[in-house]
Every structure is written in structure tokens, then in C-alpha cells.
Amino acid sequence: MTNERRDLDSQVEDEWVRFRGRLADRIIAMEVDDILSIDVLTGVDEEDLEGAAPYAQVLRWDEGAIRVEVVSNDYLDERYALSDDHEHALLEMGWERPAPADDESDQGGNFYVHAQPREADRVAVLVVRALREVYGCLHPSFLLGDLEEPSPVETVTSAAAVEPEEIAVMPVDDDHLRSLVDEALRVMLGDDLTHDEDGDVTVVEGRSLVWVRVVEDSPSIDLFAHVVLGVREHSRVPVELALLNRANELFKFVLVGDYVVMKVRLVAMPFAPAQLRGMLAVMLSVVDDLARELAVRLGGRRFRDVLREQPVAPEPPLALTALLEALHEGPMRPSSVAVLFSHDRSAIIAAIVALRRDSLATDDHDQELVLSHLRRALRFLSDGEARVRRGALDKRSPLRRSQQLSLLDVEETLDSGEWEQEVS
Question: Ranges for the TY-Chap N-terminal domain (predicted)?
Fold first, then answer.
């Protein structure tokens, strides 16, 4: 994608504004008895529907009257049925309630509005609001209707005129479907259409990346993104995924290893280019903001976030390296460990502190095993220094036996021989 491309939220809104303008122009240009139908592409075969998919229609009755309708539950298939809240929303917008079934007037069974041609802009706003807010159409690409802008009169006739894009195509095989996907997305992405080493289309959006993949041996297309990588707060994952899956009817969120995947599958029998572009636009409009917030809550990162360089553990001191090597042969005496550290208590203490802070590797040894050897060596050196100090003290202040003691008879009741033991 180009750096100048605006935020997808604004882009989707701009598409709706353009659609609304084309619709208003088309209404003004309608002649008497013209009928304009606008159908919502649902991806469900009409043969599988008992009722209708969502639609709107505009009828030009005469020079001074326009009737605009949006479908009601009288005609909608059950899977698209309007709730009481939906119907109330339509009434709040300004639509009239459908006539009762036993009404013999010609008002019909749909929600409707009567207007004049000069009110085309207001009518277009009503239609767009109904399609977006009530019938759940996410992008104008999901709409099918004759709203093409009039083209200027051609002064040059070309035998190689550009053929209009087909509404739906039945793919022959995987390769054919891939070519159809590329053609459809080239309209949207232009020169920014890129593929990875697997042949999937990749689309960058902020710090996120969306893949478009043709499923092998299946007439379907997967759109997916690795929303958050390196998840650390695993205890929060079930709750977060449940909330996301409940709030997003189009997309599914799952945990794979330590990363969260956002995905949706489109059935491509037949393949509808506008449907693919619309779904991709919707996904791009939400994926990066969603990823940013979810990365904070789950302690991870977005796909294209710059990885911070992990600090490299310093090489252990030569003495500690020698200890680690020797421990592969078995335990060592404290005196031998002290020799490795040249009887340097400071060096041993520094090694203990570094190991406690996990800043030194232990060469696959249990850390407590290494620490215990260092502590015993430290104790060995401390005890040795204590003995040396006691010996120096004895030389400075030799203990002298009183001459008077020799005059006394030795009685075991006095010290039971402990004095001699202490002197000796």
C-alpha cells in the first residue's frame, strides 16, 4: 500500500459518500415508470433462500412523485429478519410503517417514503442509513445496482474496448480462482498488489498485515491476519477472544500457539469481485486499531512492530566456566572450587549475584546446584580466613599458665581436664 493512503475508516466513509452522491444523481435522472433496485450481496445462493435478501428500491411514478422502499419481514428470508429494534430504527429515520397484510391499498408491505425528485439527496441519505445501520451492509462494494455514472460520449471507436467487470464468475480450479482474486484486488490496490512466497496476496495496514489466500481444493478464499504475536497474558486470552467473537459477527478470532488470528472465509461459488474487495476493505478498516488495543491487554505485539533487541547474556567469567565444565564430571570439593576462583571471595560473590539475577547461563546445569557449590566455596574461604586470624591472635597473646597452679593437687572436680584440653 502507498504511504499516502488515508486511514481505511475514512476511506470506507468516503466510499459511502460517493455512493450516496451517485444514488442521488441516479434518482434525479430517473424517468416515469423507471425502477431502481439496490440489492445487498450476502454470499448465499438465491436458491437456498426461502425469502428475499435485503434490498432497497426506488420507483418513479410520475413527474411529481417518487416512492422509495426498503424490504420488510413480509418478504425477508428468516436469516435476515428485522428485530423490533431494527424496525423502530427505520421509523426513527423517517420511514413509514408497512401497510397491514389485510390493507387493500396500494401501499405494499415494505417500509416506504414518498418524496419529490428535488429531494433526491434526502432520499439517498435515508437509503444509505437503512442499508448500513439496519441491514448491516458494511461497504458499498456489497451492493448491486445500476448506479454507474454516465460516461462521456466517445469520439474514437476502439475494437479493444475494456470489458466491464463481471458481477460473478464460476471458477474452474484453484489457479483460475487465484487469477480472479488478483484481478479483483488490482482494481483496489493497483501497483501495490504484492504476493508472498506462498502466492498469497499481502496487504499492509499500519503495523498489521492481512493475507488473502485461495484455499487449496476448495472454492473459497481466506482473509486472515496475525493480530497479536508473542502473547504473554495467557490467562486473559479466553475472555478477550470471547468478547471479540461476540462483538464481531463477520470475523472469527482464535489463538494459535502464542499469537491471535483474525480470519474470515468467503465462499467463491460463484466468485464475486465486489464482495472480496468489500470484505477486505472492512477488515483493513479495523485490524490495526484492534491489534493495537489487544496487544496491550494480552502483553504481545502487532505483526510489524519492531522487535526490541533482547539483551545478550554476557559470557561467564573464566573461573565459572571452568566450574561448569567440571560439574559435568560430578560434584566438586569446596577447596577445589576456591582454587578455580584463585581464593578470591569477591569473584565468588560476584558470580553468585550474577546467577541470582539470571544474567549468566549455567550450561544446562541446575542453577541451585551451581549456587550451592559457590556458597560452599565461599564458606570454605571464610572459615580459612577465620582460622588464620585465630592463629595470628594466639601468636600475639600466648596463654601463660599460672605458676601457682602447680602447687595445687589436681582435682578432677575442678575442671575435669578441660583446661588442659583448651591450653593444648
Answer: 15-143
Q: How many helices (H) and strands (E) does the chain have?
A: 12, 11
Q: Which three cell numbers stand for residue 386?
A: 577465620
CA atoms within 13 A on the CB side of 392: 6
Domain holding 333, by residue range, is 318-393
Q: Quick one: cell of 108?
A: 405494499
Taking residue 104's Cβ as centre, other Cβ atoms within 10 Å add up to: 7
- Give the CATH number, domain containing residue 297: 3.30.1460.10
> What ranges make up the beta strands (E) of 83-219?
111-115, 143-145, 194-195, 201-205, 208-214
Report the predicted TM-score, pTM, of the whole model to 2 decimal places: 0.45
Strands lying side by side in the sheet with 259-267: 194-195, 201-205, 208-214, 220-228, 259-267, 252-256
pLDDT in the model for residue 278: 85
Are residue 328 and residue 193 in the same domain, yes or no? no
Cα 106–Cα 107–Cα 112 angle in degrees, nearest 5:
150
Indicate whether 81 and 39 sit together in one domain.
yes
CA distance linking residue 152 with residue 155, whole number of Å:
9
Cα separation, 232 vs 202, whole angstroms = 27
Query: For 107-118, what is each residue's pLDDT tens digit?
Result: 678 999 998 888
Residue ending a domain, choose from 289, 309, 329: 309
DSSP strands (E only) in 63-160: 65-70, 111-115, 143-145
Residue 255 corresponds to which cell in the numbers above? 489463538
Whether 246 and 366 map to the same domain: the answer is: no
